[in-house]
Amino acid sequence: MAPPRVGLTGGIGSGKSTVTGVFARLGAAVIDTDAIAHALTAAGGAALPDIAAAFGPSVLTPDGALDRPAMRARVFADPGARRRLEAILHPRILEECQALVQRLGRTAPLLVFDVPLLVEAHAVRLGLALDRVLVVDCPPERQIAHVLARGGMGDAEVAAIIAAQAPRAARLDLADDILVNAGTREALEARVAELWSGYVQQPPAGLAPEGAGEAV
């Protein structure tokens, strides 16, 4: 029997990395679409020729990788540029996800797809054939504090990223399960363990018991 497929999403700074880490320790195979995108746009990455053709050499670093800050600024300012970039990346991301499913799905009891832009990436979401969508939710002020604590971004850049992502309400509307990250790390990890038990012990059509997506 194929393992259940859970799509994991949430806004920047919501705590997705912590949640995916717990799922991995419990035995899930985590497929990180952001990591796939990074590989596709690193020096020599498969998506770079089409990106350079669409946007010109100014979006590449001297070593030939995608200049992510430059591209981020461009797509934030121009929705058309964002759509062109997505048209290049999303089919390749989906293809790599499907290849990983074929390999990891043979032994893993659960497949967790870490898709930061799951609400926005309609083609990726449909192509993954998800059984459940788990949203990691976080109060906006805590979300911003998490990102600023990492360093490397200022208030304005963080605010621009949050504004460009799907609204919090849209993510929550998509969710089958909601994991609220508003307490301690220990509480968050315990809640992930509860969800894990529901996901791996029941068939995909009823992965979590009623109320399993409620707040910690």
Q: Looking across the biggest beta sheet, what order are the strands in?
A: 2-3-1-4-5
Low confidence ranges:
203-216
Strand content: 5-15%
Order of helices and strands: EHEHHHHEHEHHHEH
Q: Compute the number of structural domains.
A: 1
Task: Let me know the average pLDDT.
Answer: 84
DSSP strand tally:
5
Shape: globular
| CATH topology heading | Rossmann fold
Task: Report the C-alpha radius of gyration, rounded.
Answer: 18 Å
Distance between the amino and carboxyl termini: 31 Å
Question: How are the secondary structure elements laid out?
Answer:
Blueprint: E1 5-9, H1 16-26, E2 29-32, H2 33-41, H3 48-55, H4 68-77, H5 79-104, E3 111-114, H6 122-127, E4 132-137, H7 140-150, H8 155-164, H9 168-174, E5 177-180, H10 185-201
Parallel strand pairs: 1-3, 1-4, 2-3, 4-5
Helix pairs in contact: 1-10, 2-5, 3-5, 4-5
Task: Report what the structure shows.
The chain has 216 residues and is an alpha/beta fold. The protein has a single domain, classed as 3-Layer(aba) Sandwich (Rossmann fold), CATH 3.40.50. The protein has ten helices and five strands, in the order E-H-E-H-H-H-H-E-H-E-H-H-H-E-H. A five-stranded parallel beta sheet has the order 2-3-1-4-5, with helices on both faces.
What is this entry, summarized?
The chain has ten helices and five strands. With 216 residues, it is α/β, with parallel strands linked by helices. The chain has a single domain (5-206), classed as 3-Layer(aba) Sandwich (Rossmann fold), CATH 3.40.50.
